[in-house]
Amino acid sequence: MSHTCREDMSGFDQLLKLPPGHPNRKVVEDCPRCGARFLAYRKFMLADDLSGADTKAAQRHLSAFIEAEAARSLPQPNVSKQTAPRARFAFPQLRWVVPVAAVLVAVAIGVWRMQPGADRAPEVRAVEDAASIELLQVQLMNGVVDLTWEPVPTAEEYAVRLLDQSFAEIRRAGPVATTTLRVDLDPAEGVRYCQVVALVSGDEIAVSPIRRLPATESR
Amino acid sequence: MTSPERIREPRDEAALIRTIRAEGASVLGRRAANELLLPYQRPVYLWCYRYVNNHEQALDLAQDVFMRALRSISSFEGRSDFSLWLFVIVRNRCLSAIRRADPVVDAEVDFDDVFAADEHANPGRQLEDDEAEERLLALIRDTLDPIEQKAVWMRCMDRMSVEAITEILEIEERSGARGVLQRARRKLKAALEARDREEER
Ligand SMILES: [Zn+2]
User: Fold this and answer.
1) What radius of gyration, in Å, describes the C-alpha atoms of chain A?
2) For the segment A85-116, what is each residue's pLDDT rounded down to a tens digit?
3) d(Cα B132, Cα B123) in Å, to the nearest integer?
4) Ligand 1: distance of its center to the CA of B165 in Å?
5) What is the pLDDT of residues B31-76, one digit of tens each?
6) What ipTM was predicted for this assembly?
7) Residue of A nearest to B62 (CA)
8) Does the residue A182 lie in any domain?
9) Mean pLDDT value across residues B94-116
10) Residue A200: predicted pLDDT
11) Could you read off the pLDDT of A111-167 as tens digits, one per residue?
12) Nearest CA in chain A to B64
């Protein structure tokens, strides 16, 4: 059976549901590139124990993380129903511009999707393209944390989120226009993690991974 | 393949994702996100652990994976199973983490010196180059048996540890993937030397 490599792993989920030895599955397993990825996905799903790994502790930690992060990362629900006063539109006669632009963007995306090849793992690419800030340095010394990060081209300014042990935000430091910030920590605050966020007009456009503070001195 | 296929019990993940997309960060949306991601905590953490072999670093990586998943989940349209979508994220995160770290070369099972003779097939030198990848693929297909091919691919392109390769390929020989990779090194070296002799003639 001939085989064309699947760069994006599309269809591997369906192949995994086929019994081992099924010809469609076998042809993929036999390819060095696809086989390596397919068997890796299979192992991921099996989630067998690994010596040295502490899955119980990991699950406790990640449950707390996901609980806190969902509130930050998921889009705010039903913004239009919010009771908070909303900014007045500066040019009421141009109110139609925003919905029309939204429709045009949606149509453009639809057309783009119909292009041959545009369907190549678009779901996954969306995640990889999601703006992310690379932390270059997080250093804690004498109760002062020094952070340095890679610039985000479109960012106007940056802030640093300081989180407690259950990943709840204690406070923010900044904003600053530079890509480095020094933050004084009060041990009583209980800061355990930090994260850099890039801002445009106060809106978040990218975030760094959440990093635990490297030393225990501030705890 | 000794262990039975164990695929997660059927859950209506599509319904959970619909709820998340509709409800966002509301109580309902957050609850759906927790329910959706709960069974993946273990596989994501273990996958990260395979790469960094350290509990705390694996947690940091896993956090990053879940954060990215949560930030992108409202754009997930269900063209694949959620598990595959998440696996692609975790795999890519681990690869970029390992590429950023200082490489530790294990001369017994790494191939930099072998491929140095064949710079077009050198994945270390031209990782992003599709042509280099194709040439490596052709070379190992022509030279190695199926298990060796996959072991070399996992080592060179997916930057996996010997232990992880042993486990994923379920290699039962005592020396595990180390033995397989050593054998592959010898075969590839011999094949490249033979090719060079051929070209000189
Ligand atoms: Zn293939």
Assistant:
1) 23
2) 444 444 445 555 555 555 555 444 444 443 33
3) 6
4) 18
5) 999 999 999 999 999 999 999 999 999 999 999 999 999 998 878 8
6) 0.88
7) A62
8) yes
9) 82
10) 92
11) 444 333 333 344 555 455 556 888 888 988 888 999 999 999 899 999 999 999 999
12) A209
| A17 in a structural domain | yes
Residue A218 clears pLDDT 70, i.e. is over it? no
> Are the beta carbons of B168 and B154 closer than 8 angstroms?
yes
Q: A36 is in which domain, residue-wise?
A: 12-46
Does some domain include residue A87? no
What is the number of structural domains in chain A?
Answer: 2
Which B residues, 128 through 187, put their C-beta within 8 Å of a C-beta on chain A?
133, 137, 140-141, 146, 149-150, 152-154, 157-158, 167-169
CATH of the domain at B186: 1.10.1740.10
The residue of chain A with its CA nearest to that of B154 is A36
Q: What is the Cβ-side half-sphere exposure of residue B136, based on CA atoms within 13 angstroms?
A: 29
Residue B36: give the domain boundaries. 12-200
B24 contacts A123? CB cut-off 8 A: no
Helix/strand/coil for A198: strand
Q: For residue B42, is it within any domain? A: yes
- Do residues B40 and A41 touch, judged by C-beta distance below 8 A? no
d(CA B174, CA B43): 26
CATH number of the domain that A197 lies in?
A: 2.60.40.10
